[in-house]
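Margin note from the TA: students keep mixing up input and output lines. Inputs are the sequences; the output is the structure of the whole complex. Example:
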Amino acid sequence: MGYGTSPGPHTHSIPGCSSKLPSMAPLFFLLLFGQILLCTAIDTINSTTPLSGTQKIVSAGQKFALGFYSPPSNATSSSSGNYYIAIWYSNIPTLTTVWTATTDVPVSDPTTTSFQIATDGNLVLLDQAKNQQLWSTNVSIASNSTMAIIRDSGSLDLINASNSSIVYWRSIDYPTNTWLPGGKLGLNKTTGLSQRLVPWKNSADPSPGLFSLELDPNGTTQYFIQWNESINYWTSGPWNGNIFSLVPEMTSGYNYDFRFINNATESYFYYSMKDDAVLSRFVMDFNGQIKQLTWVPSSQQWILFWSQPRSQCEVYALCGAYGSCSVNALPFCNCIKGYSQKDQNDWDLQDYSGGCKRNVPLQCQNNSTSGQTKPDKFYTMEGVRLPDNAQSAAGGTSSGECELACLNNCTCNAYTYNSSGCFVWHEDLMNLQDQYSGDGVGTLFLRLAASELPDRKKRKTAIIGGVVGGVAAVLIILGVVFFFLFQKRRRERTLRISKTAGGTLIAFRYDDLQHVTSNFSQKLGGGAFGSVFKGKLPDSTAIAVKRLDGFHQGEKQFRAEVSTIGTTQHVNLVRLLGFCSQGSRRLLVYEFMPKGSLEVQLFTGDTTALSWAIRYQIALGTARGLNYLHEKCRDCIIHCDVKPDNILLDESFVPKVSDFGLAKLLGRDFSRVLTTMRGTRGYLAPEWISGVPITAKADVFSYGMMLFEIISGRRNADHGEDTFFPTLAASKLHEGDVQTLLDPRLKGDANPDELMKTCKVACWCIQDDESTRPTTGQIVQILEGLLDVNMPPVPRSLKVLGESPNVINFFSDLSSSQTSQTQNSTATSQTHTSTSGSSQL
Ligand SMILES: *[C@@H]1O[C@H](CO)[C@@H](O)[C@H](O)[C@H]1NC(C)=O
Ligand SMILES: *[C@@H]1O[C@H](CO)[C@@H](O)[C@H](O)[C@H]1NC(C)=O
Ligand SMILES: *[C@@H]1O[C@H](CO)[C@@H](O)[C@H](O)[C@H]1NC(C)=O
Ligand SMILES: *[C@@H]1O[C@H](CO)[C@@H](O)[C@H](O)[C@H]1NC(C)=O
Ligand SMILES: *[C@@H]1O[C@H](CO)[C@@H](O)[C@H](O)[C@H]1NC(C)=O
Ligand SMILES: *[C@@H]1O[C@H](CO)[C@@H](O)[C@H](O)[C@H]1NC(C)=O
Ligand SMILES: *[C@@H]1O[C@H](CO)[C@@H](O)[C@H](O)[C@H]1NC(C)=O
Ligand SMILES: *[C@@H]1O[C@H](CO)[C@@H](O)[C@H](O)[C@H]1NC(C)=O
Ligand SMILES: *[C@@H]1O[C@H](CO)[C@@H](O)[C@H](O)[C@H]1NC(C)=O
Ligand SMILES: *[C@@H]1O[C@H](CO)[C@@H](O)[C@H](O)[C@H]1NC(C)=O
Ligand SMILES: *[C@@H]1O[C@H](CO)[C@@H](O)[C@H](O)[C@H]1NC(C)=O
Ligand SMILES: *[C@@H]1O[C@H](CO)[C@@H](O)[C@H](O)[C@H]1NC(C)=O
């Protein structure tokens, strides 16, 4: 963790108190403590009390402090020697800044620099040695009798010295990278002043980075994250009266109050904490994601609860030119073949935007006669997201011609040839992504100097040619013998494996798994924790092998957790058969599920629609599986990531919950787990982002969201621009008209009682207050028909604003534009699926 956090740069003392510090060394600590008790901290800067050196001011409730702050320049040094005026939390041990006065030139010596009230009444940062003004609040004030005060809200306010209700300037209106509770994020339509969140350049430099989050300046009600103020790579979707359509999880809960105001004079998003003691902040991270963190006192650290865009690799140009992003690797960015980091120090500070540079110039770029003489070659990169700005090359009607078209122009860096023709790249290659399977995937042929790609064929012939024929023959024969011996041994070992596969977990060897999966060739999916491959044991049992990525856990702990997962067995849970833990490699071996995931069955066009009876069986089975996790096994397991992707189906469509226990398994790297899975849009219980402890009821919420999708056959957010399906369903349920909610592919063919029951359960599950949600045990009983269920209230966060014409419109539009919406949403759901990488397990 560490967004604007660092170890404390130096000790701070309180102005006006330092004189009271006696010089008696032995009593120092005692008195330092005493000093805090004796002095009421000063929270203001007035015309006679400038701030400099190690002085700071602290808000009345001791929540925030302001002073000079020096971020660490790298992991090994505590201070960069650059100072900035900053506001940080004063009541937690991890130094975490929330605001900085952005200056072009950082302060090098805070003792000769002062933060003071200038003669014009503005608050300024003045370098006294050079007599240079580095920063100013820059507002026009009629007099100079002003003072600055640090508030418990984290805002520094410039106020009239004799009347504190007259405020001239507030730092919270000029946020830097952090959006604090009580702060607005929006636009004042009279002045045009907008609040944008701009990340630091890197972990050591608070100057503005390339990304920004702001309300659409064109006046719509959606927020964008932009790269270089030009390219939008994420949007919240428009406000529909209740939620932003693409972040439905952002609703008011117990701890939070989210509000969007949009009228003639202003338009902004605002949030506040219901309990002031809970510390929470939104930060625009220098890696281009917006993150919400909450301070968890019991673990004394900031815990990431939410972030967008969901995948780090969706951030535009994150890895710079010639860098490639990889979802399952840390760091996310690497240089492509033949290139190396332009600025090692920036990369070390996790700023990859500088990108990479070519190691060896191309033949055509090289002027010297002594240099490269061999023609350039092409390096094949398969399964990558192709870079932006491809140019169609007219001449290239075959792969060979396409290659030639690229070779013949010195500015051509790469080409691809596919069914739509030949494309070349003359500009920097941006936005490459490894191990990619979504939209725009392809094979890139990267142009490199010949020396970067040693000619393997030639070398081999040279070696063979150099060896006397007889010796070679002997070697070959020996080689063949060894190969067969090796194969035999291998086969024996795998056979041994399948024999021991009785009840307990098998510890597989890595090369055995490599063998049974044909060297990981048949990928079933790539989920939050790693990729899944299909394999076949020697006795023809099909298996699914999950290769855990970004895993940093010790062998012993891994085995302990795996054995817990292994003993968690139920007919509605995917069975773990074995594991592999060898060196840094961690793999899990599961039974194979022939019908894939519920996500595939529900949302992809190439499967026939599941009948209602099967859907009901899936709903009930899933509830049973979850109930087993929650109540029946030794330690209660909260799944944390219930969604259709994680419900797998066997031959007869019996649902099996997968991926349980993994959140705990990867628990050490908590933030990463959260980033990858909890971003799952639409299934998150509100308490995930409100910072209260997570209980099994969070799974119930996600289960309810999933039930709606089982009913409608579509993703909840894919019912058109402004329609969030659960909102629609809750109101239709009250009108008694649940039949219209049913997946149109079923043509009304569903048991009406079961349909009504399922709708009611779903609506109960997504109540804001977790205590009103049913337990999984109750859900099972209701679906089994053993318990009756009442009409649920409309969840508060989904309540329809009665008067809003917007809302009325989209309800009546729904039926008329149903067909086109279906088509649209199928398309979007496919993109979504492929980019998010649905997982087999
Ligand atoms: C400035 O603040 C200090 C300490 O709070 C106080 O002693 C002093 O009188 C103030 N000066 C003015 C001009 O208000
Ligand atoms: C870390 O920063 C310090 C101070 O700027 C510098 O002297 C040192 O060389 C840096 N270390 C690395 C590994 O970059
Ligand atoms: C405030 O302004 C008056 C008149 O311009 C000036 O005499 C006085 O020194 C100023 N006070 C401060 C603290 O700058
Ligand atoms: C202060 O504001 C004026 C106009 O309001 C502007 O021209 C000037 O550039 C600003 N100065 C700084 C340092 O922001
Ligand atoms: C500050 O407040 C006092 C008292 O309300 C008022 O007389 C004075 O005009 C105010 N100063 C400015 C610059 O608004
Ligand atoms: C302070 O300013 C407010 C708003 O301008 C005004 O209503 C109030 O009367 C002023 N108070 C004093 C003591 O001047
Ligand atoms: C705002 O509108 C202009 C003109 O219609 C368009 O070029 C621009 O891309 C829009 N900006 C955003 C952020 O949508
Ligand atoms: C950002 O855009 C500006 C012009 O809009 C351009 O000059 C600059 O090179 C761009 N930055 C990067 C890193 O591409
Ligand atoms: C806009 O909303 C704000 C906050 O609710 C309110 O203070 C302001 O008066 C409203 N303006 C108009 C024109 O309705
Ligand atoms: C917009 O800014 C102007 C000038 O600072 C201010 O008077 C007005 O109250 C602001 N409007 C809103 C709605 O905050
Ligand atoms: C080749 O020569 C041109 C012009 O003389 C020069 O601009 C360029 O930098 C040279 N390139 C290399 C790789 O030396
Ligand atoms: C190489 O391609 C660039 C971009 O398409 C073009 O401007 C340039 O004229 C081409 N050069 C040659 C020698 O064809």
